[in-house]
Amino acid sequence: xxxxxxxxxxxxxxxxxxxxxxxxxxxxxxxxxxxxxxxxxxxxxxxxxxxxxxxxxxxxxxxxxxxxxxxxxxxxxxxxxxxxxxxxxxxxxxxxxxxxxxxxxxxxxxxxxxxxxxxxxxxxxxxxxxxxxxxxxxxxxxxxxxxxxxxxxxxxxxxxxxxxxxxxxxxxxxxxxxxxxxxxxxxxxxxxxxxxxxxxxxxxxxxxxxxxxxxxxxxxxxxxxxxxxxxxxxxxxxxxxxxxxxxxxxxxxxxxxxxxxxxxxxxxxxxxxxxxxxxxxxxxxxxxxxxxxxxxxxxxxxxxxxxxxxxxxxxxxxxxxxxxxxxxxxxxxxxxxxxxxxxxxxxxxxxxxxxxxxxxxxxxxxxxxxxxxxxxxxxxxxxxxxxxxxxxxxxxxxxxxxxxxxxxxxxxx
Length: 413
Description:
Layout: H1 7-17, H2 25-38, H3 43-50, H4 56-65, H5 69-78, H6 82-91, H7 93-96, H8 99-106, H9 112-125, H10 130-137, H11 143-152, H12 160-165, H13 172-185, H14 188-197, H15 203-210, H16 216-228, H17 232-241, H18 245-255, H19 258-270, H20 274-283, H21 290-299, H22 303-347, H23 362-369, H24 372-376, E1 387-388, E2 391-392
Antiparallel strand pairs: 1-2
Helix pairs in contact: 1-2, 2-3, 2-4, 3-5, 4-5, 5-6, 6-9, 9-10, 11-13, 13-14, 15-16, 16-17, 17-18, 18-20, 19-20, 20-22, 21-22
C-alpha cells in the first residue's frame, strides 16, 4: 500500500481493524506510524487513546524522524522516560512547552543536571514562573548551587520568595543572599529579623559593610551585630557616633566590663549628657563603684544626677553590713554554746574505781585445790589398793610409780 501510494486506503483498513475483538497490538502500532507519516493531526489522539496497546519504542523513532515534538514528548511520558521528555521540551519549547505539563514531567526527573538546566531554560522562556517551578523541584536541588547560579546571572530577586521559604534550613548561602537583597531593598526590619533568627553567615563582614551605610537604621544594625559578637568597643563607637545612646548603654551593660562602663560614663559627662549619665548609672549599676561615681559627679558638678545611684549603693552597703553583723552574732552564740557543752562534759567525767584489799592470794587457793582427796573429804591415810584381781599396778603404791601401768596376767582370766 505504501509503495503504491495508497496511504489513505491502508489507514482506513487499519482503522476498521481496530474494532475487531482480538485486534493485534501491531495494528495499533502501525496505525500510529502511518498517522505520524501521513496524517499527523490524528497522531496525538491515537496515542492518547491507545497508548497501552502501542509499541511506543517503535513509534518514538518515527516521531523523532518526523520532528513531531509534542507527540514525542507525550510518548516519552507514557514510556516513563521523563528525562528525555523534559529534554525534548527544553530543546523545542515552541512546539512542546506548557508550564503545567512541564512541572508534571520535571517532578519525576531523576537527573539533577536536567533540573538545573530546566531553571536556566525558564530564565529565558518564563522567568516569572521560576518560583512556582522551584516549589516543585526545590527538594531535589542544592540551595547553595541554586544561589550561586542565579547570582552569576544577576537574577537573585527572581528566587527571593523561594529562598525566604527555605531559610529555616539555615544555609549560609541562602542567609547571605537574602541579607544582600534586604539591604538592596532597604528592608532593615526584615534584615534584623533574619539576623536574629538565622546566625549562619559572615557576621563581621556584614557589620563592617553596614558600618558606613547611608541609612541610619542599617548602621544601627551594624552596631547590633558587633554587640552580638562581643565587639563592645566597636559597637559603642557606632552608637555614640549616631547618638543612639540607649544602644550604647545596653551594650556596656551586656559587656560586664567595668572599664567600658566607666568610659561611657565619662563620655556622657564630657558631652554634658547628664540624663544619659543618670540612665547609665542605673543600667550599669553592678559594674560601677560608688566612690568613682561620686568623684566624677563632684568634678562635673552634677551630684544631683548621681544621687539615685549613691542612695541605692549606700542602702546596699548598709544591708550587707547588717547581714554580716547578724551572721557574726549567730556565730558567737554558737561558739559560746559549744564551750558550755564542753565544760559540762569535762565535769561529768568519772575516775576508774580502786581495790582496797588488793588482789586475793591465788597461790594458796591453788595449793588447796591441788589435793583431790582433801577436797573430797577423804581421810589422809587412804591409799589405793595394790592389786586388783591378778592385775598388778607396779611395785609402788599410788599413781606416781616409775613403772607406770604394767598389768600382769597369770594364767589368764
